[in-house]
Amino acid sequence: METTQETNQPESGVVPGPARINIPQDIGVEAVTPPEPTNGAPAAEDVIDPTKEVVELVLDHPIDFDGKHYERLVLNLIGIRRKQWKSIKKTFRGLDSSFNPMPLDDEDYQAVVAAEAAQVPLLLLDALHPTDWLRVSGVVFQFLGKSLDPRATRPRR
Q1: Which ranges constitute the DSSP H helices of 21-127?
Q2: The pTM is what?
């Protein structure tokens, strides 16, 4: 059994009234409910907050560096203490990096912070595959951005 459906298809450059096309009733297609759109956001159980937990990143491209094999990096960003932050600042200032008033988005600064958090040599991070480095720098950037968020600090009353 066939039914008709109206469409507004132009025919030879002229837009006529509603056109009719024949669509068979039983064409063997089942109705499927589409999944909820996520806009590329990870599922709630996959969200990592580096300001509250140690982050372990499995490298997509394991690396051999200074005689050691690295398959993962454990970033303990929440474990960095004030004395270590001073060391991070000194190391960053010693690099040939141009002045950046917002160091949290500077890749060199992120590398120094990540090296300190993972307790690995800074040069190891320079040797990472680009996709692995982008994941590391993303976690560090997220940590630095959240830890500097003024909404996270409540004034005393």
Answers
A1: 82-94, 107-118, 122-126
A2: 0.61
